[in-house]
Structure formats: structure tokens, C-alpha cells
Design a protein that fits this description.
TIM Barrel
């Protein structure tokens, strides 16, 4: 199933009125699901009303590390109200990005994953490129995978894996059985500068990536583009059309 990552539209999500107008446009483009991220202040019940009015479901969220550590009961209640089964974190706080910090974060994130699993939710870690830094024989991402409870899942971001020198398909397969969400994001080159692109408009090996997703057990294909060279609504529309043409519905 396909969803739109709302971080792509963060400049259009600052007020409840903005959120309502943006979600309406997302539905008009053809999306039926979203991942919540970068929304301005809005009451959960009002957000759920807007989603329902537009026929949109929430497949997943990105929640800050502080809330996950200090307000897990609030996070659980919020996700129950939204009928959202998947909780994710957008990235690792900077203080953990060391040889000693990765195992510590793996343990602490496992505690969060177990608490959420006990309440009926999954918890996924979303990567960037810095996790592919090597610490001896292992990358940071290797450490997170190897040192964590199996209930900690991974939300592989195709662009950032490629940007870090990795093979997205290989990493998706590496977390087989521990991945429900994937971020589809393409990479291109312009004037010798690496740039993000609409899915299918860049140079990533999409047949290999999507085959790996099917093998690994991905449920949600979440389209995201952090930086767009055109109107971000148009970028999301182009990516959706291309992804559907690749056989993902």
C-alpha cells in the first residue's frame, strides 16, 4: 500500500487550516494514506476529523525521542485515537552517534519497542546516511540491528542508504521480517551535485528495491521527498504515478 510522508509538505502544515487544506489536496492527488510528520499544533481529535473527512488513514507517524522516552502512554493514546498501527522515530539524537552510543541507543530503543508492542503497536527506526559510518568491522546501522530486540523494526530510507554508499535493496533484505515501512525516495545528479528526485525520475534501481521490499515483508511504501525542485504537491503526484506504474498499489 502507498502513503505520502507529510514531511514533504511541511511548509503547508503550520496551522489547523493549513493541515485541512493540505490533506484535501493529498487526497485529490490520489493518496489514501499518510505518514504524519512535521505538523503544526493541532488537537488529535480535530486531526482525526480532517483525516476522516478526506478518506485518509494514518499508516505511521514520526515521533520525537523525548516523547517516546517520557510520554509513552500519551503516544499510545494518541495512536489509538488515530487508529495508527505503526510508530516510528525520524532519526537518532546526536549524542548517540558514537561507537559507545549506538549499542546504548539499541537497548533504549528496544525498551520503547517492547512497550509499544505490548500495547499493540510496532516501533520502527528511520535511517539517514550517518548510520553507515563504520566503527571497526560494523556500521552504526549494523550495530542497531544486531544489538536490538527483534521487536525494534526498521524503516529503510532508500535515498539515504544510497547517499551513505549502501545498496538499498541489500539493506532492506538485511532487515527481512523486521520491516513494515519503507521510504521511497530517489536520487539524481545535476551539475555534479547529488539531488533528491521524484521516485522513478532518478537513478536508483527500483526493480531491485521493490523486489527486496516484497521479499522482506514491507506493508507500506511511503513516498517522501525532503527537497523538491518543483511544487511539492506536483512532486508527490509524479512519484505516485510512477510507483503505481511499477506495480505497487
Amino acid at each position: 500500500m502507498i502513503a505520502a510522508q507529510l514531511y514533504t509538505l511541511r511548509e503547508f502544515l503550520k496551522t489547523p487550516e493549513d493541515i485541512a487544506a493540505t490533506l484535501r489536496k493529498v487526497r485529490e492527488i490520489g493518496y489514501e494514506a499518510v505518514q504524519l510528520s512535521a505538523l503544526g499544533p493541532i488537537e488529535t481529535h480535530r486531526l482525526k476529523e480532517i483525516l476522516d473527512e478526506n478518506g485518509l488513514v494514518v499508516c505511521a507517524t514520526h515521533i520525537g525521542w523525548d516523547r517516546l522516552q517520557n510520554d509513552i502512554h500519551g503516544v499510545i493514546a494518541e495512536h489509538r485515537e488515530l487508529a495508527c498501527p505503526h510508530v516510528a522515530i525520524g532519526g537518532m539524537p546526536g549524542q548517540y552517534r558514537t561507537a559507545e552510543g549506538y549499542p546504548r541507543f539499541a537497548k533504549e530503543a528496544s525498551d520503547v519497542a517492547r512497550a509499544l508492542a505490548d500495547a499493540g503497536f510496532t516501533f520502527s527506526y528511520h535511517n539517514h546516511d550517518f548510520e553507515l559510518e563504520r566503527f571497526g568491522a560494523k556500521t552504526g546501522l549494523d550495530i542497531l540491528i544486531d544489538d536490538s530486540d527483534s521487536r525494534l523494526l526498521f524503516e529503510i530510507d532508500t535515498y539515504w542508504i544510497q547517499h551513505g554508499g549502501g545498496d538499498p535493496a541489500q539493506w532492506i533484505r538485511k532487515v527481512k521480517g523486521r520491516i513494515r515501512l519503507v521510504h521511497l525516495k530517489d536520487m539524481t545528479i545535476k551539475d555534479r551535485q547529488v539531488r533528491m528526485a521524484e521516485v522513478g525520475e532518478g537513478n536508483l534501481n527500483w526493480p531491485a528495491i521493490l523486489e527486496a521490499c516484497r521479499e522482506a515483508g514491507v506493508e507500506w511504501y511511503i513516498i517522501e521527498q525532503d527537497i523538491c525542485d518543483r511544487d511539492p504537491f506536483e512532486s508527490l503526484a509524479i512519484s505516485l504515478k510512477n510507483v503505481k506504474a511499477m506495480g505497487i498499489q
